[in-house]
């Protein structure tokens, strides 16, 4: 994490003031994911904000699963979220927490509200409930069950809990104000009947608390001081405060809202991401094209660049769209500084150095990174047979082409100058080999006679090359706002978001590439080994990102 002074934002100001005024003695925040999907780049923002503020002010941050809706939740999601938060570099206070740990306490507080005349069991069905609720311009109407005596509500609530009541038949509602201009205060639902198996509490419960009834109380139980959420909860804040004011809670948390992160060319709705996975538009939650933390990790993006990006987006109270180019800039900036260099030929063409002794094998010792001595050196085998990229050879010279041309010279990166003397074609007329000669006096120096050699190309020694598959990824969507307005985001998928290149040849040292280590393949971009081998057993490298921002360059041209 960087030590650079952080620019202020309204949350930092609030916390600083609260500490200065003694309203709080320490900072406790929480990150409260619902385990109904994998975390995405938007969640990374919430994680960095919550853990980051706690860290900055010497406080703590809890990781709490908001597992109040058993029908959509799963332990697979719990496990992935725990892994992702740790990978981002954050440590939560104590054990992982679960809303379900507080079900009994919450139930007791629901009974308390009933006894105080502040909640009742209502028998309006979902459709009637909607009718009675009113609209933004019309007040709601009182439920016919609103004056139900507390003992009767308590009795029915107990039966709801035991599973004696059908789903949709009854709810427990707060008794607040059906005439409130804030719809959230029109007798909101606290408990619904749900005969579902819960991944932690099993079949113990037949009622589950609503988000509103659960969230603030969980914060209070955990002595959270600053409950930070996104702007869509602003209208829920009066309800949050109503519960805190009317319940015997052990602390008084406060809620603050900030604008969620919206990123161009990216979807950050868990429901839509799930649809991409379930309908097979991508290969899983961790497909390297997904904006999930696990997808970004598999793609080779470092946690540091995610934190850097999130910090640069700032914290504000107005919604906006952040340019994906800014994220890509952070990814590239990090990799340029930290990724060891390597060579890999994506479209191999054989080169034979006719004047290099047959059977002779040399080893060239080269830097892993031009500016980073600390990253050490690597060994490049060298011999008479090499691979270069097909696109680095042409029969005829042209003005802008600075690579290898028949009859001319080029430098092999980190090695010698070679000249293309002759092409070998197969029966179909396709070039299958170049016969070249090398200049033995050009290793690490220019030709002695002053010949100018402009181009540099990458190469891999043939006999020890690592056969591999390379996957090139592009943006998953074609338009900047794939799910704006009425449009179906699936119509916006980029059909060319994945290109698979088989039969690639990488330098030997990449056989030992560690998982999670991203390399710069010289002249090609940044690549990271995939955890899974290809169907033929070969190593797979995923392109994290290209060397240059071709999208914005295309836009300018
Ligand atoms: P759902 O619509 O399923 O509730 P969610 O994206 O709100 O999805 P949660 O698991 O409830 O998912 O989110 C956990 C936390 O992450 C919440 O505090 C939420 O406000 C925050 N969060 C989610 N998406 C973003 C985003 N794009 N930017 C910033 N914070 C986000
Ligand atoms: Mg949510």
What kind of sheet is the major sheet?
A: 7 strands, mixed
Fraction of residues in helix: 25-40%
Radius of gyration: 31 Å
Low confidence ranges: none
Strand content: 15-25%
Class by alpha and beta content: alpha/beta
Morphology call: elongated
What is the CATH C level class of the largest domain, in words? Answer: Alpha Beta
Q: What name does the CATH topology of the largest domain carry?
A: Rossmann fold
Mean pLDDT: 96
Helical element count? 13
CA-CA gap between termini: 37 Å
Strand order of the largest sheet: 10-25-26-27-23-24-11
Say which molecules are bound, naming each kind only once: adenosine-5'-triphosphate, magnesium ion
Q: What is the CATH architecture descriptor of the largest domain?
A: 3-Layer(aba) Sandwich
* Count of the separate structural domains: 3
Draw up the topology in text.
Elements: H1 10-21, E1 28-31, H2 41-56, E2 60-65, H3 75-87, E3 97-98, H4 103-115, E4 119-122, H5 126-133, H6 150-162, E5 171-174, E6 189-193, E7 207-209, H7 211-221, E8 226-230, H8 237-246, E9 254-258, H9 270-278, H10 293-299, H11 303-313, H12 324-338, E10 341-342, E11 344-345, E12 348-353, E13 362-367, E14 377-382, E15 385-389, E16 393-394, E17 404-405, E18 409-412, E19 417-425, E20 431-439, E21 456-457, E22 459-461, E23 466-473, E24 498-506, E25 518-521, E26 525-529, E27 539-545, H13 550-556
Parallel strand pairs: 1-2, 2-3, 8-9, 10-25, 12-20, 16-17, 18-21, 23-27
Antiparallel strand pairs: 4-5, 5-6, 6-7, 11-24, 12-15, 13-14, 15-22, 18-19, 19-20, 23-24, 25-26, 26-27
Helix pairs in contact: 2-11, 7-8, 11-12
């Amino acid at each position: 994490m960087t030590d650079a002074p952080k620019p202020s934002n309204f949350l930092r100001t609030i916390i600083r003031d609260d500490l200065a005024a003694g309203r709080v003695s320490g900072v406790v925040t929480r990150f409260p994911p619902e385990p109904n999907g994998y975390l995405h780049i938007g969640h990374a923002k919430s994680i960095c904000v919550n853990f980051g503020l706690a860290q900055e002010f010497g406080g703590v941050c809890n990781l709490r699963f908001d597992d109040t809706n058993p029908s959509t939740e799963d332990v697979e999601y719990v496990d992935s979220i725990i892994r992702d938060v740790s990978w981002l570099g954050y440590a939560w206070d104590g054990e992982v927490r679960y809303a379900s740990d507080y079900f009994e306490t919450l139930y007791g507080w629901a009974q308390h509200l009933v006894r105080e005349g502040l909640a009742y069991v209502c028998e309006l069905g979902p459709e009637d409930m909607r009718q009675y609720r009113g609209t933004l311009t019309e007040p709601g109407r009182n439920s016919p069950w609103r004056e139900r005596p507390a003992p009767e509500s308590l009795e029915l609530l107990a039966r709801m809990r035991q599973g004696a009541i059908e789903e949709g038949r009854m709810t427990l509602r707060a008794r607040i104000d059906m005439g409130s201009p804030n719809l959230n205060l029109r007798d909101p639902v606290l408990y619904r009947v749900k005969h579902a198996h819960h991944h932690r509490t099993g079949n113990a419960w037949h009622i589950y608390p609503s988000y509103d009834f659960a969230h603030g109380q969980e914060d209070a139980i955990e002595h959270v001081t600053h409950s930070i959420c996104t702007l869509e909860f602003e209208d829920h804040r009066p309800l949050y405060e109503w519960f805190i004011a009317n319940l015997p809670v052990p602390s008084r948390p406060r809620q603050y809202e900030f604008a969620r992160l919206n990123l161009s060319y990216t979807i950050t709705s868990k429901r839509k991401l799930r649809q991409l996975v379930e309908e097979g538009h991508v290969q899983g939650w961790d497909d390297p094209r997904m904006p999930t933390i696990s997808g970004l990790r598999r793609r080779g993006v470092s946690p540091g660049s995610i934190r850097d990006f999130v910090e640069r987006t700032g914290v504000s109270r107005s919604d906006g769209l952040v340019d994906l180019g800014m994220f890509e800039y952070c990814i590239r900036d990090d990799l340029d500084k930290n990724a060891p260099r390597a060579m890999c030929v994506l479209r191999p063409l054989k080169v034979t150095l006719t004047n290099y002794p047959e059977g002779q094998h040399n080893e060239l010792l080269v830097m892993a990174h031009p500016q980073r001595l600390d990253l050490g050196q690597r060994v490049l085998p060298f011999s008479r047979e090499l691979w270069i990229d097909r696109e680095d050879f042409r029969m005829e010279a042209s003005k802008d082409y600075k690579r290898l041309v028949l009859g001319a010279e080029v430098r092999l990166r980190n090695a010698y100058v070679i000249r293309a003397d002759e092409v070998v074609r197969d029966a179909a007329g396709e070039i299958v080999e170049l016969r070249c000669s090398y200049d033995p006096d050009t290793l690490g120096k220019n030709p002695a006679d002053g010949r100018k050699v402009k181009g540099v190309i990458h190469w891999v020694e043939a006999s020890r090359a690592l056969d591999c598959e390379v996957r090139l990824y592009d943006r998953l969507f074609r338009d900047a706002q794939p799910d704006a307005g009425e449009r179906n985001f699936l119509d916006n998928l980029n059909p060319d978001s994945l290109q698979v290149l088989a039969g690639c040849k990488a330098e030997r040292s990449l056989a030992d590439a560690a998982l999670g280590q991203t390399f710069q393949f010289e002249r090609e971009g940044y690549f990271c080994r995939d955890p899974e081998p290809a169907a033929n057993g070969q190593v797979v490298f995923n392109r994290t990102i290209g060397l240059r921002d071709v999208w914005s360059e295309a836009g300018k041209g």
